[in-house]
Amino acid sequence: MGRTRVRALLRRALRLRCPACGGGALYARWFVMHERCARCGLVYEAEQGFFLGAIYVNYAVTVCLGLGSTLLVDWLHPMSLVGQLAVAVPVMAVFPVLFFHHARSLWLALNLLVVGPEAPPAGRR
Question: Which residues lie closer than 8 Å to 111 by C-beta, 6 or more apart?
Fold first, then answer.
C-alpha cells in the first residue's frame, strides 16, 4: 500500500470518480448514486447499509470545520457565546449537505484501500 496509491484514491474520491479506475462518475444526479462503475464494473454499494460509515466521515469533518472555524474566528476577534453560535450553527447546518457526496466517495475509497474491490454479482456485469 504505497503513498502513490493512497494519493490516487484520495484524488479520485475528491473528484467524485470511481476509486478503482478513476473513470466512472459516482453520481447520476444530486442524491442518486450509480449502482456500479460504467468503466470497470466496481459495485459501489457492496451491501445494504454500506454507506453508514460515510455518516461518520461527514460528522467528523463537519465537527472539525465547525469547531475550527468558531475557534479561529473567536481567536481573531473575541466574541460571546451567542456570536460563536452564530458562526458555528450555519456552518454545521449547511456543510454536511454540501459534503455528502465527498463523504460517500471518501468512504468508498477507504473501503477499496482496506478491503479491495468487491466482485460484482454473477451475471450482473
Answer: 46, 50, 53
